Amino acid sequence: MAEEQEGLAKEQEARINRREFLNLAWLASLGFVTLSMGGVTLLFAFPRFGEGEFGGVSSIGTASELPSVEAPPLNNPSLKLWLTRPPEGVLAIYKVCTHLGCLYSWSDQEGKFLCPCHGSQFEYDGTYIKGPAPRSLDRFVLQAVDPATGNVLYESQDGQPLPVPEDPNVIIRVDTGRKILGEPHG
Ligand code: FES
């Protein structure tokens, strides 16, 4: 009888230990999930791009360094954009085609942007001409920045060209984290 009771006590003890182990494992996995979610939240809460990197804000020079009106588009591979100078101001056009994401390029002969993948074509300012692309090219927000204070004087609105500042020392910045989608057509 005493042996039987001892056996029962041991079995009960083993069951309690198993339960404790399962509780601990459950708490550990809960802690892991909480920490992971906290990490992801922090990643989103703080800027992920440094100054000058694609996805962040970068200076593209002063107003005096901008290309002249209707000069051939300036290729900026690191910021993945074409800089163009329509009469209304300056534009930063995203280099990726709005159809399936190929890199298009400027044709001096034809005076337009041509996509090699499926033949979409776009004007100097990124406006859709023809081809399977569903919309005009996307543009990044541009800013005119006071060189003395670093304050933003004004920025481009709704993807419109940024008017070129009269002061040649004003800094022009592009925010490649803020993309304005091109106008859909037809
Ligand atoms: S990806 Fe440019 S036309 Fe298809």
Provide tags for this entry.
186 residues, alpha+beta, Rieske Iron-sulfur Protein, 2 domains, 4-stranded antiparallel β-sheet, elongated, binds FE2/S2 (inorganic) cluster
Furnish the topology, listing elements before pairings.
Elements: H1 2-45, E1 57-62, E2 74-76, E3 81-84, E4 91-94, E5 105-107, E6 112-114, E7 121-122, E8 128-130, E9 139-145, E10 152-155, E11 171-180
Antiparallel strand pairs: 1-11, 2-3, 3-4, 5-6, 6-7, 7-8, 9-10, 9-11
Bound molecules: FE2/S2 (inorganic) cluster.
Task: Give structural notes.
Helix content is 24%, strand content 26%. The protein has 186 residues and is of the alpha+beta class. It has two domains: 46 residues; 124 residues, Rieske [2Fe-2S] iron-sulphur domain (Rieske Iron-sulfur Protein). The chain has a four-stranded antiparallel beta sheet, with no helix packed on it. A four-stranded antiparallel beta sheet has the order 5-6-7-8, with no helix packed on it. Strands 2-3-4 form a three-stranded antiparallel beta sheet, with no helix packed on it. The longest helix has 44 residues. The mean pLDDT is 87. The site of FE2/S2 (inorganic) cluster has 13 residues, from loops.
List all distinct small molecules, including ions and cofactors, that are bound in this structure: FE2/S2 (inorganic) cluster
Total individual domains: 2
Give, in spatial order, the strands making up the sheet with the most strands.
1-11-9-10
Low-confidence stretches: none
CATH class of the largest domain: Mainly Beta
CATH topology of the largest domain: Rieske Iron-sulfur Protein
Estimated share of beta-strand residues: 25-35%
- Helix/strand/pairing category: alpha+beta
CATH architectural type of the largest domain = 3-layer Sandwich
